[in-house]
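Proteins fold reproducibly. Next comes a concrete instance:

***
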Amino acid sequence: MMMKMKMTTTTKNKSAKVHEVFVSRQGEGPYVGEKQVFFRFSRCNMTCNYCDTDNSIGQTESVHSILAQLEKVYWQESKIQSMSITGGEPLLYPEVIPDISDWAHKLELNVFLETNGVLPENLEKVIALIDVVSMDLKLPSVSATPAYWKEHALFLKTILEAGKKYYLKMVLSDEVETSDFDQAIDLVASQNPNSTLFLQPVTPLNGVPGISQEKCVELKERALSKLWDVRIQPQWHKYWGVR
C-alpha cells in the first residue's frame, strides 16, 4: 500500500467557485464503488431539467484554499483510490484544473473528469492531465436543452486523439425521443463503435418522469445494433444514500 506523504502547496493567483469537497464512493460508470475524493465545482453552462446539483451553492476560493481543502479531506480518510473532478461543469475552470490534477498525481491518484461534454476547446487545454473522462451525451428531448451534436462530436474526437480512457453516459427518461437517441448512437458509432456507453435511467426530479425497465432494454438493444458495449446502470449512490 502506498504511504501517504504530506506535501506543500503553493499559492497561485487563480480562483474558482467551489461547491464542495468530500470523499465517497463512485456511483456511476465502470468504476462503481471506487473510493474517491470528489472536488465539485459550482456553476454550469447548461440547465438540464433533471439536474440534482444546486449550482447556486458555493463560494469563490483561491487555488491555495482549494488545495488546502483537498489535503484536509484527504488526510481524514484512508484507502482513497482516485479523484473525481466534477460539478456543475468543471471545464468552466480550465485554468484551475492543472493545479488540482497535479495535487492528485503527486499522491498517485488517477484523475477522473466528469463533464457534460460540450466544451471541446476547454477540454483540449487540460486533456493531457486527465486519466479518465466521463462524458455525457445530452439528449434534447430528455434534458430540455438545445442540441449539442457538433460539440459532442468534437469532444469525443479530442478524447480519442489524446488516447485517454473514457466512458459515455446518457440519461434517459420516459420523454426520450427515438430520433434523439439514434442521432447520439450514430455520433458515437462514427467516432468509435467500441466506446462503452452507460444508459442511465433518470432519477425522477423536478417533475421529470422516470423510464421503465422495458423501455431501457429496448433502447439498449437498439444501440447494440451499432455499438459493442452498452450497459444499463442507475445512479448507485442514490440507492446507497451517499453523495
Q: What stands out?
A: The radius of gyration is 18 Å.
